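User: Before I run my own analysis I want an independent prediction to cross-check against. Here's the chain; please return only the structure tokens and, at the end, one sentence I can use as a sanity check.
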Amino acid sequence: MKDYITVENEAQIETEVKKSRFIASVRHIENEAEAFAFINEVKSQYKEASHNVYAFVCRDNNSERYTDDGEPAKTAGMPVLDVLLKGNITDACIVVTRYFGGTLLGTGGLVRAYGQAAKDAVQKAGVVKMVYSKIYSLATDYSYIGKIQYAAAEKGYEIIETQFGQNVYMTLGVEDAGASRMVDDITQITNGQAKIEFVGERFVKTKPGQ
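Assistant: Structure tokens:
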């Protein structure tokens, strides 16, 4: 399973360029059906708009689509798609709505306006790297929390969830290559007192660069 980058949150921004109103909306999607559902949702919300331009990329069927929705060819959908492609972002859909303000922007102006709106929406949504990881459950004494947190930050495994009760219960994620090292680290940190069990595999959110 390959790691990938996607948007973390749903987001929307609004900007104005020469009296034209641009509204960029972005959402994480898992497949084409979810992408088109989002596109239709935005179109329904802004059905009086001059244009509802979209672009999306998703791992399902290696889909990559865009539309200019009536704007001159490659001046709207393509710059929106470029934001996803240049950021290596997948499983994401962006819709940029335009209310025409009466002043022509020209082809260069359209490319800049649509591209910037899409970029700002992605920046607001934030991006995460999804890393396919082995998942472990951990039960340990409170006295070891700090050392485990430090080791996780230092050695690159994720503390997905922490619950507090009679003991501390954590859910940890680690890439396959580092799994045995993580188990050894925690065993050493806790003097063999921690109970750690493998519970499965799935994608885990991390920040790009980790």
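Sanity check: DSSP finds five helices and ten strands in the chain.
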